[in-house]
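Thread: quick sanity check before group meeting

JM: Hey all, I'm pulling together slides for Thursday and realized we never actually wrote out the predicted structure for the chain we discussed last week. Dropping the sequence here so it's in one place. If anyone has concerns about the input, flag it before I start.
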Amino acid sequence: MIYCDEQATTPLAPEAREAMLPWLGGPGSDGFANPHSPHRPGRAAAAAIELAVEAIAALFPPGGRVILTSGATEALNLALRGSGARRLAVSAIEHAAVLEPARAIDPACALLPVDDQGLVDPAVAIPAGTELVAVMQVNNEIGTIQPVEAIAARAKAAGALMLCDAVQGAGKLAPPAACDMIAISAHKLYGPKGIGALWLRDGIALHPQIIGGGQQQGLRAGTLSPALAAGFGAAARLARERQAEDAAHVAALWARARAALAGWQVNGSATQRWHGNLNVRLDRLDAARLLSECRSVALSAGSACASGSGRPSHVLRATGLSDTMARTALRIGFGRYTGQEDLDKAIAAINAAARAQGLDV
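JM (edit): ok, ran it. Output follows.
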């Protein structure tokens, strides 16, 4: 099967896998040691985590600290709930990991609108009294790159904290330097699942949400996994080393895919986006049927977290598409390990599946 769903998750980089192996603790190895223990194996595990955190921290702006979490969802919840903010404003196209806790904290949470290109206005009005603003760096469904720096300046002028879900942009784009808190996830940048990070600007204080130990400066209790941390660190280092190369590769794939899908309409801005995400729609297409019948390609119709809900994409609706139009959309995600030949085969299979529905492509 050809994998074209890189917004849902990415393949584990071989370098990340190799970095993890010594800390999985097989026979004859003491890599299983608890990194919070004082003995030699424990100190070695702790040192491995420290080295990984240094590599992960390089993905963020200077002047902050990194808290390891189980993933971006936990990191975002720690930021939102731990900040103590009660009046929130978030973009209308945020991931559920932001939208749901934000609404739980503030049922009157303001939604910052996007235009038909899927972009928040850089001069968006921040409602009076807002204490925290959250806008993602790159949208997970349509790939649009948001003007986070400009919005962060407006949030600061309004006296609000600025949180950014940078899951889809980490290691691919420059970090959103004007933010107060940034959340990322290892498995979206060719690292392992089960680990993520929250970056806090120096001077930002949070209330811990998981208690029961003094780990990580008292902000997040629990035994850390040296294996997951090592894999995350290796993936972070590789992402920084390959950032320009990876960007050029996906830009070439984007151009190739767009040419082969000339009859399809792009959802979201074609220029202000990460080009590893191609979200397209075709009038009268039954996207669910295509996903079922196009068995040689792994792709999606939207966020993996909303898969099977039956609800039309809130992201596409926010851009002005009707529910009917939103259900004609496909998300094709490619990246570092996607070859041109595989992408060509995937696009050919998608077009063939559309033609089987009597559509002209």
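AS: nice. The mean pLDDT is 96. The CA atoms of residues 14 and 143 lie 26 Å apart.
JM: adding both to the slides.
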